[in-house]
Amino acid sequence: MKEQLLANPVFRMAADQFDRTADFLNLSVEIRKRCKWPMRLLTVSIPIKLDNGETEVFYGYRVQHQLSRGPVKGGLRFHPNVELGEVAALAMWMNWKCALMELPFGGGKGGVACDPRSMSQAELENLTRRYTSEMLPFIGPETDVMAPDMGTNEQTMSWMLDVYSTHAGHMVPGIVTGKPVKLMGSEGRTAATGHGVAFLAARALTKCKIKHETATAVIQGFGNVGYHAALTLERFGVKITGISDVTGAIFSVEGINIRKLAEHVEQTGGVRNYAGAAPIDPEVLLVQECDVLIPAALERVITEKNAAHLKCRVLAEAANGPTTTKADQIIEERGDIFLIPDILCNAGGVTCSYFEWVQNLQRFQWSEQEVLTKLDTKMAKAFDRVIAFSKYNKLPHRVAALALGIKEVADVKEQRGLFP
């Protein structure tokens, strides 16, 4: 099983990051093994009847990396390229992220290999309900709490909530986060990840002595995270000059009106052919001159091929694992890019999910202002900890963030001991 996971390039990248950080922390071999490898790897087949009457079998996964600090927390994604190794890597990163943010969660991640864009609402509902029913023995508010991710949304979470609650015989809102507010979801949850990305990018610009009003940003990915990151950056006064999604990329030195672009995307399905900006090759967009570059889509988009050509001052990793190991080395050697690593940069989502989970346990709901104020406080504290730790130990920002998270988990493992 270890060999199967390591054969996946995303898991190999996460494992390399762990090994480098464990070397710095001087972790014992025993603790390394207990921290590195997932506790549970679940694979299920999901047979459903399609709209045309045919039966199709999909494969679903859930990885629970560690439960030493509390229930695992992590998203569920629907995407054609979902693999067990990728899911395991995402669960590992989520583990360090929750520890870094001082949240009482371990890391989890789930996925189903499917193309949600080609499936009807009825097919997606059947898929979600069957996946949830297969996971029932392994999930719960104190065991594993899922959330939306790529290809899933609050409707997906509503179906999961219904399946679990029906089997429990009563409403169990804490089984998922990212739900509609009417089902005891949290105000501010939809915007949380993108808001947090923009909030930290703005702090990084200040650290670099760049005025927000003169700064520019390029965003790769215009889903929920990219959209809300762009909106929040606009409120800070930053001009968005480039945006891309699966349909193409656009660029304008004059700036892009985000709300008008969102209307265009709603009508056409993508940013392509937006009249307010010129088309540009998506790969070329990544190396356009800007103050903030935000990769907010898939993993491994900043590589050894383009890392040396980046013209940003701040690299804010809104996606999980957008920068490969070799690209990391190039960026470190350059020394002119302020990196906000993924486990810190996109932690607004899981932090707000924690707030939702707490509200569910209390059967109480906070206002959006309360939620975002608490979120900004948590994000600012974690940002300052990482920067201070990096400076004191002369470490790259990524290693500093990972070290703080991994050390927290390692200490708990040590304190709890090994079951004989």
UniProtKB/TrEMBL annotation:
Any one GO MF term held by the record is:
oxidoreductase activity
Does the keyword section mention Protease?
Answer: no
Keyword set, alphabetical order: Oxidoreductase
- All copies of domain Glutamate/phenylalanine/leucine/valine/L-tryptophan dehydrogenase C-terminal, residue ranges: 186-417
Among its keywords, does the record have tRNA-binding?
no
Output the CDD domains linked to this UniProt entry. Answer: NAD_bind_1_Glu_DH
Q: Which domain of life is it from?
A: Bacteria
Question: Which protein family is named in the record?
Answer: Belongs to the Glu/Leu/Phe/Val dehydrogenases family.
Supply the name of the protein.
Glutamate dehydrogenase
Query: What's the source species for this entry?
Result: Rubritalea spongiae
